[in-house]
Amino acid sequence: MKMGLLVEIVFLNFCLVSWSDPTAALFNVSELFSVLSIGKTPAEKAAENTKFFLRLRNDPDADGCTFTKDPASITFCSFNVTAKTFMIVHGWSMSGLLEMWVSRLVDALHRKEKHSNVIVVDWLHRAQQHYPIAVANTARVGRDIASLIESLHKNFDYPLKHLHLLGYSLGAHVSGYAGSYLNSIGKIGRITGMDPAGPGFEGKAESERLSIDDAEFVDAVHTFTRGSLGLSIGIQQPVAHTDFYPNNGHFQPGCDLSNAYRNVATRGFFGITETVKCEHERSIHLFIGSLLHESQASLAFQCSDHARFDRGVCLSCTKNRCNRLGYDVARVRTKRSNKLFLRTSAKMPFRVFHYQLKMHFFSGPNEEPAYPSMSISLHGTRGDSHNVPLTRIETIKGNHTYSFLVHTDTDLGELRRVKLSWDGTSAWQNVWKQLSDLLPWPHESSPPKNIFLRRLRIKAGETQERLTFCSPGDTKLQMYPGVEYTFEQCQRRQIPRLRHRYI
Ligand SMILES: *[C@@H]1O[C@H](CO)[C@@H](O)[C@H](O)[C@H]1NC(C)=O
Ligand SMILES: *[C@@H]1O[C@H](CO)[C@@H](O)[C@H](O)[C@H]1NC(C)=O
Ligand SMILES: *[C@@H]1O[C@H](CO)[C@@H](O)[C@H](O)[C@H]1NC(C)=O
Asked: Are strands 242-246 and 338-342 parallel, antiparallel or unpaired?
């Protein structure tokens, strides 16, 4: 073994074991060699084999019917050779047991596609190893899956395009290997990578990880692309035709750090793994949500990077630039990966409503720099959303247009009114607010800023609708901290086309 590889394995092992299971021993070299070495008893070899279970529609929790690539067993299990097939591939395992999400996904798939074959791939024995060993096992498990699919294809003329592999974490790369081993006979229909694993795969050649060559269509949902020491649990780079990055691929709502502290307080060290699991597993629950709530699919928007998305400038649906996350994704097959971004809420079905807010601030000649903290309230035909904070930007300069992303958890219908508050934060601003309540405006001598606003422009991502909101009388309003300003939807004739470039 090359020394570099060994060092890498020890390092990975240390990082992963230390956050996941503090009781696990550090890397055990003799264990690695025993796993890699041959000369096992037949019983040991049998236990290692990848197992396949055809799950029953009316009993998603039961193991289902065990089958192998032997055609007799495929017939025995009443595999429906004219129906679609889903194969669920789990990831690295600490417990050696299938996790709760497996039966939830099985059930959701059966609900969505009544006649489908839902197969759970059990490679627990090879997955419940130190992480680097489990990584080394992914290719072998991929080959086992490929040989089962090959048998279905040869003996029953089963079309490869009817197959959809769903792999979580390491299972995503297992699915990728399965797809690439089948390339000599054709391409499987679809692979969905649910937070494909990062360590051991990030930056690797396409042949050594999930990639767009592995199926006719590959999609991936990235939910935990952050970590310590430069190591991310989920892979950061795009690996699919369509790569979704909910909440920029990290910090999933409802899995936040404050929960982590609460978990640690109540559950000790395992509280940390709960939080890790929450974000990593969110990829699966987003997919399950898309199966169970098809009318409330989350929309995601193509964007070159999350900084641009955060400014709201990517909410476009022209030329396939937006897509539905999950089962009903539009299969846009491009030569290169596309990154799509979206916000989500903390609970199923997770959908939110995205808006781009554009504001052009005018300034007078004596402008001082402003350090605003602003929030808006949106009032629509179906509801209101109060005090949505705007992402902080360093300074607001006059005679510039600024763009922000805001989102709401509920459908507000068509927007009619927007209220903007410029929240005073510093001490003098608070004093100013108190003064402003007492003094009549405008006050010649001492306005703190010379910033004016006349209109707000909003683009709704979900409806692609653009609306403009005017100040009372459509005049330039001077902005003061601690004051709320109301803008009503303008009369159509008032709206000229916007020519400014936004910052
Ligand atoms: C390493 O693994 C082997 C086999 O599982 C075991 O016998 C040995 O005690 C382990 N060594 C350490 C240091 O944990
Ligand atoms: C097999 O699937 C097809 C749909 O592809 C369905 O029409 C048929 O009823 C299914 N057969 C059985 C025995 O469930
Ligand atoms: C903004 O434009 C107005 C009118 O054109 C001008 O009087 C003012 O000085 C400009 N402000 C800045 C900071 O350039």
From this structure: parallel
Closest CA to 451 of 392, 379, 387, 374: 374
Question: Residues 122, 98: contact at Cβ < 8 Å?
Answer: yes
Q: Of all atoms in ligand 3, which is nearest to the CA of residue 362?
A: 1
Instruction: Considering only CA atoms, give the Rg of the chain.
Output: 27
Taking the CA of residue 500 as centre, how many other CA atoms within 13 Å lie in the half-sphere pointing to its CB? 16
Mutate which of 360, 361, 363, 367 for ligand 3 pocket (most atoms within 8 A of beta carbon): 363
Contacts of 69 (CB under 8 A, 6+ apart): 147, 148, 150, 151, 152
Nearest to 130 by CA among 29, 45, 243: 29
Over the chain (503 residues), what is each successive 10-residue block's mean pLDDT? 41 44 40 49 77 89 88 90 97 89 96 96 94 94 97 96 97 98 96 96 96 98 80 91 96 75 58 75 97 96 95 95 97 93 96 96 69 86 92 74 94 96 57 53 48 93 96 89 90 58 43
254 phi-psi bin (left φ>0, alpha ψ -120 to 50, beta other): left
Flag whether 206 is marked binding: yes
